[in-house]
Amino acid sequence: MIGVHQVVAGAAPRDAITNHVLAAREVIRAMGLRSEIFAEERHTAGELRGRIHPHQAWEALTEPGDAAIIHYSIDSPAFAHVAAAATRVGIHYHNITPPDLLWTYAPGLARQCAEGRERLQPLVHLASTAAADSAFNAGELMDLGMDDVSVVGILRGPGLATAPAAATAGRSARHRILFVGRGVSNKAQDDLILALGSLLQAGHDVELRLVGSWGGNRAFESRCRWLARRVAAADRVQFLGSVSDEELAIEYRDADVFACASRHEGYCVPIIEALEAGVPVVARAAGAVPETTGRAGLLLDDPTPSHLAEAIAAVLGGALRDEMHAGRLEQLAIHSNDATTARLRAFVETLA
Fold first, then answer.
1. Considering its fold, how many domains does the chain have in total?
2. Residue 239: enclosing H or E segment and its boundaries?
3. Terminus of the chain with fewer CB atoms < 10 Å: N or C?
4. Domain contains 225
5. d(CA 145, CA 142)
6. Which ranges of the chain have pLDDT less than 50?
7. Residue 318: its pLDDT value, please?
8. pTM of the model
9. How many CA atoms lie within 13 A of 154 on its CB side?
């Protein structure tokens, strides 16, 4: 039995790529193939180490003739090690943030992204086949000389927990704006805070809830907290950090609008989660966001914070909701796990 294995730079609970590879492993095994996951051990969360192996274990756990899918979102020593040992290599490209969006507040991360983009080119020449989360990502690989890139999407594992019914007693009537994503400057949480300030000045009773770890991006977090104070919204911005699946389900349940000002996205899983929860979406039309959102949200080309505020106010007022609902069903069909599984199986067959 041949093996098709997966390699990632690192793994963490509730991380989109980690969730994808864990779900993809079960899809590959259901195809009658052996499949394991390898990663750089120092970047693998402790609770996942029984399910994800150090990349140095490739030779011990695989057989001659086995293939590897390298999930590329940043460079890693694991990739060079496996690419040299595997019989065939495929790339699943999850995109790399352009460094110019990161230099001001996260220069270390910016440097890693710059190096990752430079080292992608040689890996493309080693790969026999390639896939990507989106047509946007596929276009970047084709620009590097890769032909026939499959658009697979992202599997989302078992999904969020079902949120309990909302308690109405004591619940504030204040509208909730939600964003889910790590705290880093390309995600533009600062624009959302400025938009919140505009909404408050216009008399809207709203609050902004930011879900996601800030990790080592303390400079950008400090800027966001400072901005919240400057626009007199310190008590209206909730920095919730990383939350459990159960807590996240409640955040989606209670949200009135999902707002995304991100300047670069290779897919954006939280938009799909918002659509599943029936939450209207307002988003900057950056990267793959138009693909992911489709007609299910209000997309804005390079908006200022005040334009974001106007769009959020329009959605909160009920505008476009019927059209968004129709578009939501279309997008959920395209990005469902069943549809993504079918595309993944076709990609794996090119390697097996």
1. 2
2. strand 237-241
3. N
4. yes
5. 5
6. none
7. 86
8. 0.93
9. 26
Structure tokens at 285: 């039309």
Q: What is the 3-state secondary structure (H, E, C) of the chain?
A: CCEEEEEECCECCCCHHHHHHHHHHHHHHHCCCECCEEECHHHECHHHCCCCEEHHHHHHHCCCCCEEEEEECCCCHHHHHHHHHCCEEEEEECCCCCHHHCCCCCHHHHHHHHHHHHHHHHHHHHCCEEEECCHHHHHHHHHCCCCCCEECCCCCCCCCCCCCCCCCCCCCCCEEEEEECCCCHHHCHHHHHHHHHHHHHCCCCEEEEEECCCCCCHHHHHHHHHHHHHCCCHHHEEEEECCCHHHHHHHHHHCCEEEECCCCCCCCHHHHHHHHCCCCEEEECCCCHHHHHHHHEEEECCCCHHHHHHHHHHHHCCCCHHHHHHHHHHHHHHCCHHHHHHHHHHHHHHHC
Q: Distances in Å between the alpha carbon of 287 and those of 1, 139, 299?
A: 39, 11, 12
Q: Residues 6 or more apart from 347 whose CB is under 8 A from it? A: 90, 92, 129, 131, 150, 152
Residues 117 and 242 reside in one and the same domain: no
CA distance 226 to 116: 32
CATH of the domain at 128: 3.40.50.2000
pLDDT for residue 216: 77
- Domain span at residue 209? 175-334
Q: Is residue 43 part of a domain?
A: yes
Domain membership flag for residue 47: yes
Cβ atoms 299, 290 nearer than 8 A: yes
